[in-house]
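A common beginner's mistake is to predict each chain separately and then try to dock the pieces by hand. The better habit, illustrated here, is to supply every component at once so that their relative placement is modeled jointly.
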Amino acid sequence: MNYHLACSSAILCSFLATGCSTLAIDQTRDVSKSAIDYTESVNKILEDTKLYVIRMDSKQLTMSRSTEDSEQNKQRLTEKNKAMDKWIAVADQLRHQNILLQKYFTALQAMITDVENNDMSDSLSNISVSISNINENEAARRGKESHERMLRDSHKINLKGVSGSMVSRHYANKIRRILIRDREIIDQQIALHTVQLDLIESIYLRRAKLDNAEHYANNILGAYVSTSPNSMYEASSWAAARNKWFKDKKALGVFDAVRKANKDFRQAWQNILQGKKDVGAVKAILSDVDKFVDNAYQLHDSYHNPRTTNLYVIPPSR
Amino acid sequence: MAKYTTEMFQIFEDAYLKIISKPTIDMQAHEIVERGEVVQEMSLKMMTLETAHMSELHAAIEVEGSKMEHALAAMEKATEANTDYMTLLHSVDHAMHIMNNFFLLLF
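With all components supplied together, the output reads:
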């Protein structure tokens, strides 16, 4: 009897261990997939914001173009190109970081799927070293205050205090070693994302607000109120312009989803490191990240269907 | 520092919004030209602020901080004042001239 009980217990324990292991691996695969989708969407938003910033800048240059002073035009264009180059460099750097993060999770996912045949240890190591270097450079670029803020933020989850044993024992040893080595680097990168997304958000919202105000003034208020034949008022295009104005005002909230996805993604990453077994909680967290991916597509659509009714008046001679 | 730059952006945005909110169709030729110049300067300065390195900002504030604060206060006052459009444009333009040295340190 005792022998049978012992055998049953052993079988049960072995079954439970296998079940937990599969669970942890499945969750990690889910997180890796969401991480890849997340980084792709952030890059899409970045690319679209870049296009938007350039479009807005060109609009402002058109408004200030002189019909008489070509030297002045040349100077203005040169100044703006220089400022735009600097801005694009900042946006491209964030894009590069995202691509690295995406590569990291793609390699991790391949390794988790088949640890024996897909040994990505070297590749993951190279990527995490590059990410770590970027983290340091970026923290230095943002100055002491932001550096401290970022670290404080990163420490909130107390990864540094978590011992190696907290990384789930259900992972294969190779994966476990990688996760222990990289957890802080990746966590810091996700924390940095929060700061960088704040910057991108403010850049996007500022332009969208100013652009929408200009659209309202010229295409809605001016066109409707003016009785001059030059008002170019035409009922159907005016109504479409007004619809667009309302729609764009609402679209200003799109970055709320980005911020939430960033926070959730970081939470999921921690859960996986610690091998939490609550599949429902991790799935709920990741569904918010998926919502963000959908929102990113919506934003993409709005960028690629710009207003076509702006009325421009070429500055006349002085 | 973050609070300082947020305030700067807010003052710039408010002024820009007021300037851009007048329909072009209601404007005189000289107002359109003047507006174009002010919009160019404002957008250039805002873009410079967006990409400025924190250490550059600290240094610029140390050297030109008091002039900058004076200019920002003047811009804020001009935005809130109920003046005619040309006076608004001139006041904002004047405030931005005072800021030039500050922004030169950020390039």
